[in-house]
Amino acid sequence: MDQPHRTQFNAARSRPCPTDGAWPSLSPDAARVAIVSPSSPDRRRLATLFADAGFTVLQASKLDVARALIESEDVDLVLLNCATLARETLAFCRTLASDAGGPLLLVMAGQADLVDEIVALELGADDLLVGPVADRLVVARAKALLRRAAPRRRSGDGREATGGWRMNPTTRTAISPAGRSVVLAPSDASAFHLFLSNPDVVFTNEAGAHALGAGRTHPATFRTTVCRLRKKLAELGDGDPIQTIRGVGYAYAPGGSRTNLLLSNLAA
């Protein structure tokens, strides 16, 4: 079986160096990205691209190798490059989403229809790019995902807290005012983080999709994510902190009050 490996690059020349090892020019805090692609040329190109952008890069040619890599290495983000959203790719999305505290997942597919895109996002992909994509956009999406995953508003115990509801971004655990908890899928956790960070702000489907970086073409994916998130929070039996503003969108209003709500200006 192929083994996961780390390839060292010379960032100035953007081509592989002959030796293996760590990244001497990177800071200890550099994000670690696993490039997963069955295509050697694509894998090398993406690895060089992310190395030049300052990331620590790991590589895997197969999904089973990627799973072993994630289990043995501290990975912040997985970039999965595939021709289509095949069954095994969707299964990989589900597996990664079930791992509380696991890495983010950015999927690049050569082609996919709308249904496959929605299914991939529902199963746990944090963002999805379809068709030929500019290299700069790939890196920008990866940085945006990592930026959103970074804790922004924390309480004293390291959890994001607003209006009695909290979330531990490390484990993706939502915690109700009564202290009951549930683990969220990555995309659901990103949406909950968005609401917690913007209390009393109404997000339309378009604004929500834009803010999360996924579903720009199809804002309905944001609505799907919110519906799934609300079902998970409802399991805690502590009310519904996310309110539907009929004809407009959704807002985080844990007390049930719809006064002083602001319309998000995050237009797509």
Give a verbal description of the structure.
The chain has 268 residues and is an alpha/beta fold. It folds into two domains: 5-149, Rossmann fold (3-Layer(aba) Sandwich), CATH 3.40.50; 160-263, Winged helix-like DNA-binding domain superfamily/Winged helix DNA-binding domain (Arc Repressor Mutant, subunit A), CATH 1.10.10.10. Helices cover 35% and strands 22% of the residues. The chain is built from eight helices and 16 strands. A six-stranded mixed β-sheet has the order 1-5-4-6-7-8, with helices on both faces. A four-stranded antiparallel β-sheet has the order 9-10-11-12, covered by helices on one side. It has a four-stranded mixed β-sheet with strand order 14-15-13-16. A hairpin with a 2-residue loop joins strand 9 and strand 10 (165-168). Helix 6 (186-197) crosses helix 8 and helix 7 (205-212) packs across helix 8 (220-234). The radius of gyration is 19 Å and the shape is globular. The termini are far apart. The model is unreliable at 5-29, 151-161 and 264-268 (pLDDT under 50).
